[in-house]
Amino acid sequence: MASVQGPSSSHLRLFVDKKTNKVVVGEASADFIDALLSFLTLPLGTIIRLLSNKPTHRSSAEVGCINNLYQSVQNFDTEVFWNGICKTMLLCPRNPCEKLCQKLRFNVDDTEPTKYFMCGSCRQGSDEWLSAFSGVSCSCGKLMDQEMKVVEEEDDNPKGGVFVRGESMYLIFDDLTVLQNSACNTIHQLVQLGYSDVTKLTEMSPKVGSKQIMDLLRRALVSTSTLTDVFLNREAAGSQPVSSFTPRLASQNVKKTQSSFNLKITVSKSKNKILFAEAEEDFADFLFSFLTMPLGSTLKLLDGNVNLGSMHNLYKSVKGMNPSWFGRYRSPHSPFSPLLDLKVASQYGCKKQRLDVHEEESPCYYYGTGFYRNNAIYASHNGVISNDWEKIRNASKVELFDPRSADGRKEAVGYVRRPALLAVMDDLQLTPLTSTSSISFLQKLKVPLNDLEEHKVTIHKTEALNLLGASLTSKAALTNGLFYLVKKQKEEPTI
Ligand SMILES: [Zn+2]
Predict the structure, then answer these.
(1) How many Å apart are CA 109 and CA 43, to the nearest integer?
(2) Residues 6+ positions from 455 with CB-CB distance below 8 Å
(3) Rounded to the nearest whole angstrom, what is the distance from the C-alpha of residue 78 to the centroid of ligand 1?
(4) Which of 132, 142, 161, 248 could lock 30 by a disulfide, CB 3.0 to 4.6 Å apart?
(5) 377 lies in some domain
């Protein structure tokens, strides 16, 4: 895994029960814990990309059927989207903690760091625009292709921890529960696990490098014995993937004002399952927005209702940690870890996503001709940008171009070109119906037409969450996430 930066070892001691050949407990340094916690910052699309791009001899961990959604985006012509940038945004979503993750000793997220561009012709004019994507056409007809130097805060403590306090040691368990290192915590947990004698455990100090961190990501999504799987090489004999989800039933009184989608779904009567749904543009954007959501936000939204290997334990560990053990980076305006309030990266949100996952606010950007450092001025040929106008010379405010809107300057609409009509199969494979013959589509289903039944359902927040949970845990996302709505319709008396 050449993408991961940093030296090839980290401090990790594991204590193994030789009888069962399982890791019981470990002691780890902050850089190891930081790498594990950074899994929470990864957008779901990034996780799918990382796991599919790096095939190893080990079985790749499939997370529900959301990889089909990703592959559909990959296979679509750019005509399906507003533009080619929207397609790239879904395939390589940005990490909301991109800058923090760049400080990690082991950073699994190999997404290309954000670069900023301006139009060389318009730069001096009054109408100044900045793009966080390359290849954007400026309104003058030229490309915004001059890369800006970004003037940032200097890191005053580059060796400190990122998500947890740098100088401390941490306890880690096989299911990735992380605790502050203390004798009391150790005793309590070991007794709970049924171990009364620490001297009977065998100590080992495994090598920790980029490969091991990637293996931990792969196993953490499907296993509750992640450390054993990776460090004792027990994956071959490993357990069945541990993932489950129970759809929640919506409360009876959904507020009329609550925004919703209407969705046409087609059910096979004989198989008692949903075959496909017809998605218009807003629903398609909502589905695509799954790919840009950080894993941590997803776990928070599903609130313990979803079981994804050991991942929830990482999230719970941060939640239970005393704030004094957090690293030096906190959420803006709060003493808490940014991991507890992860938002979708700025410009990667979806207005109509129904899940209340917010997009990070874009900071203000200023353009200048040079920057100040240590009482000296440094000129820059192309120009510099900064969030702090005091850092740069001849500062003028610039607006951020939004690739999801009609011309980049109006309010963002979505990823999909309007109007859109897509068939969403039960396993989240998508087919654009605008460019496909519907007769051929039905032929491919290979189901007698008199076995099909159409239902109209309404997707509120609860249903949206059910669909998200089912897409991460099953191969039949529509049936497992939404079929209860059809059953409910059948049970309700028709008036
Ligand atoms: Zn221009």
Answers:
(1) 10
(2) 264, 265, 266, 267, 485, 486, 489
(3) 24
(4) 161
(5) yes
Name the one residue in this structure whose structure tokens are 């039905």.
442
Q: Quote the number of domains for the chain.
A: 1
Q: Please, are residues 83 and 41 in contact by the beta-carbon 8 Å criterion?
A: no
Residue 392 Cα, ligand 1 centroid: separation in angstroms? 22
353 vs 25, 172, 236, 251, CA distance in Å? 40, 35, 39, 20
| pLDDT value of position 1 | 40
How far is the centre of ligand 1, averaged over its atoms, from the C-alpha of 393 (Å)? Answer: 22
Using the mean position of ligand 1's atoms as its centre, give its distance from the Cα of residue 439 in Å.
Answer: 46
Ligand 1 centroid, distance to 368 Cα (angstroms): 17
**Which amino acid belongs to residue 183?**
A
State how far the alpha carbon of 160 is from the alpha carbons of 30, 355, 422, in Å: 9, 35, 48
Peptide bond between residue 419 and the one before it cis (omega within 30 degrees of 0): yes
Q: Is residue 285 part of a domain?
A: yes
Ligand 1 centroid – CA 84 distance (Å) = 19
What is the distance in A from the centroid of ligand 1 to the CA of 434? 34
User: Ligand 1 centroid vs 407 CA: distance in angstroms?
Assistant: 13
Amino acid identity of residue 30, one-letter, is A
Tens digits of residue pLDDT in 254-307: 565 557 889 999 999 999 999 999 999 999 999 999 999 999 999 999 988 888
Joined together, the tokens standing for residue 305 give: 């209702």
Q: How far apart are the CA of 140 and the centre of ligand 1, in A? A: 4
Q: Is residue 41 part of a domain?
A: yes
> Which residues does 494 contact at the CB level (< 8 Å), separation at least 6?
none
Tokens of 486: 């059809």
Give the three-class secondary structure for 456: strand
124 alpha carbon to ligand 1 midpoint, in Å?
A: 10
- In the structure, ligand 1 is a single-atom ion and the residues with CB under 5 Å from it are 119, 121-122, 138, 140, 142
Question: How do residues 308-356 score in pLDDT, each as one tens digit?
Answer: 999 999 999 999 998 888 887 766 656 678 898 899 999 998 877 778 7
Question: Ligand 1 center to residue 141 CA distance, Å?
Answer: 6
Residue 3 lies in a domain: no
Q: Note down the domain range covering 438.
A: 12-491
CA of 144 to the centre of ligand 1 (A): 7
